[in-house]
Amino acid sequence: MSRKLSPNRDPNEILKRYWGYNDFRPQQKEIILSILEGKDTLALLPTGGGKSICFQIPALIIGKLCLVISPLIALMQDQVETLQSKGIKALALFSGQTKGEQSAILEQAVKNQLNFLYISPERLASHEFKGWLQNMELGLVAIDEAHCISQWGYDFRPEYLKISEIREVFPGVPMLALTASATQEVVKDIIKSLKFRNGENIFRRSFIRENLIYLIRRTENKKLKILEICNNVKGAGIIYSRNRRGTEQLSLYLQRNNISCNYYHAGLSSEERNLRQTEWINNTTRIMVCTNAFGMGIDKPDVRFVIHYEPPDCIESYYQEAGRAGRDGQKAFCILCYFDTDLDNEKHKIDEQYPDDKTLNKIYHYLCNYLKIMVGSGEGTSHDFILSNFCSEYNLPIRSTHFAISMLQKSGYLNLNENGIINSTIKILVSPSELYKLQVENEEYNKLILALLRTRGGYFDFYTQVDEMKIALLLNQPQNKIIEMLNFLHNKEYIDYQSKTTIPQIVLTTPRYDKISPNRKLINSLQDKAIKRLEGMNSYIHNKSLCRNNFIAKYFGEKTQYKCKKCDVCIDSDSGNLSAKQFEFYRTFIMERLINEKQDIHTLSSGLKGSSLAEFLIAINWMLNNHWVVKDKTGLLEWKKGKK
Question: Is 230 in the same domain as 127?
Fold first, then answer.
């Protein structure tokens, strides 16, 4: 049975039908038309720029299977669920599924019953998958996070280098590579590694985000500075910290100071992460304090600020994370807090990330012993792996061990999937007659129970895996609706429903060796490039002359003379550029509102009618620097007595 596709080949009609939009965002339609012309294409679109539509719409028009390669299971699942909710056939392959489940998905792909099949880049190395792939009818290959293909990229993954092997089976199928951040070196690597057939068919959106106000704040007391920002800037926010403990401590500090917030990191259970994410998206929680595990694939347009508690290790990461602010096009703040020792700490971390061969051999042998792998065996085997348990058994430091495993992965000895999935299970707790009574009384739940019983047996006798995605497709319902119904049955004690949980997995890609020879040339090269990226971050922080939007754009190779007049550099450099008449206007405006009442900066600026926000910020910054205006302990502004 073939899937149903719209016969209309007009991208605008498909956009309206499935996504409900009347118009494309900049560059989207040009990218789509390039693919429809059969061209290999590279799309450089900022975070929140609508990259997924660029392959989803042409795939629907082409009418053949689109293979989507993505390194993030959570992002795969989000996109699959979104497509399914629109009635589009999409499935994903990932570790944690049984062989039977994977075979069922691959059979649908081969039988032309899917629009989209999502896989990880590691999947391409599987001989079994290659066998299935040869029998598929592909219309498009989409590569998400394409910067991972380059050693110059900030998240290089060797398995991405195997993607071009698809060319051997499908030489005429167009490829679309997508990324939010790529320097000129990375762009060249992507085009070369994917063997683009028709030159540099590149579409770029400007890296300048005119609605974002970039600010750097040097401070010895970061928590107090962040509290001040949270009190002064209204609306939803994200605060990034580099480690899990930091998210918890900062979140607790803000909560004690009456800030609505919670923390998020990969150490939480999947249920807890999903709950906290949902509460933040729905504005039940105002601020999320998180590691960079949070944010990928989340489309919340009204984020009014993103704060970095420490500097990231490169501009690419900073641009992507800060870019989650202001996706609605409205004013938003991107604030980076730092102290002088922060970048020294980052340099030390880089040294730690690239251990010597002796250390790598030690960790490799400990790991194989821990997994009970004999010399000469283990190739292709998958193992649940909790890093803290491993380190505890061998008395190893967690951080440096994590880095060592990462280098073993880059040297080709293993793959670590930190988001492995244990599938959901159900056991029916009531008798068949009690269940039948529920079916008679409620038609909606009758359909759900019939779908469960038809897809798999054994629910009355033991815990049996259930695929919520498959049930959703059978009933033509969104997956979250199916999960909601199963939870209802669980709470009413008709069933015991254990939803999906995540557990990291290690896959050995070679047999166990008695001694390994890590790819030292690659490791040294990656270390050198990491140091250069950190130097770029250091230059950004200490830059005092170039507009911050301009600095970021130029870092990514964009030629521009843009000046935002809103970032801290622009404000500092332009402080003397207001005319006497302009300055007097803002002086009077600010004094009249602050002389008898303290206000935060947003309340103060909301009184501007038809006046320039940029000029106001220049004036207020000058007055703060010259102590005409001061801030109290809560961050409210007040007029300093004696100034007229």
Answer: no
Pair (551, 586) in one structural domain:
no
What crossing angle do the helices spanning 520-542 and 548-555 adopt, rounded to 10°?
160
Domain that holds residue 486: 424-499
Distance CA 91, CA 479 (A): 12
Write out the E strands in 444-494: 464-465
**Residue entry with tokens 């390194």:** 71
pLDDT at 500 over 80: no
Residue 309 CA to residue 339 CA, distance in Å, equals 10
Look at 608 and 73; give whichever has higher pLDDT. Answer: 608
Cβ proximity of 316 and 207 under 8 Å: no
- Identity at 324, one-letter amino acid code: R
Q: Do 218 and 197 share a domain, yes or no?
A: no
Pick from 386, 455, 384, 394: which is nearest to 426 by CA? 455
Same domain, 380 and 457: no
Q: Model confidence over 103-160: pLDDT tens digits? A: 888 999 999 999 999 998 888 877 888 889 999 999 999 999 999 898 777 778 888 8
Q: Worst-scoring range by mean pLDDT, 5-9, 415-419, 481-485, 588-592?
A: 5-9
In the block, residue with structure tokens 């469960």: 452
Q: How far apart are alpha carbons 143 and 71 in whole angstroms? A: 9
pLDDT confidence of residue 386: 85
Alpha-carbon distance of 322 to 344, in angstroms, equals 22
Write the CA distances from 272 to 81, 453, 464, integer angstroms.
19, 29, 23
CA 639 – CA 591 distance, rounded (Å): 6
CA angle 590, 591, 594 (to 5 degrees): 85
Express each pLDDT in 46-98 by its tens digit.
Answer: 776 688 999 999 999 999 999 999 987 767 877 888 898 888 999 988 766 77
Give the CATH number of the domain where residue 333 resides. Answer: 3.40.50.300
395 in a structural domain: yes
- Under the banding of pLDDT at 50, 70 and 90, the label for residue 474 is confident
Structure tokens at 447: 């359909």
Tell me the pairing of strands 261-264 and 287-290.
parallel
The separation between CA 172 and the C-alpha centre of its own chain, rounded to angstroms, equals 31
Answer yes or no: is 562 within a domain.
no
3-state secondary structure at position 501: strand
| Strand spans (E) along 155-302 | 175-179, 202-204, 212-218, 236-240, 261-264, 287-290
**Which has the higher per-residue pLDDT, 630 or 618?**
630
**354 close to 403: Cβ distance less than 8 angstroms:** yes
- Is residue 574's pLDDT more than 70? no
State the Cα–Cα distance between residues 365 and 525, nearest whole angstrom: 25
Distance (Å, rounded) from C-alpha 538 to C-alpha 551?
Answer: 12
- Tell me if 629 sits within 8 A of 620, measured CB to CB: yes
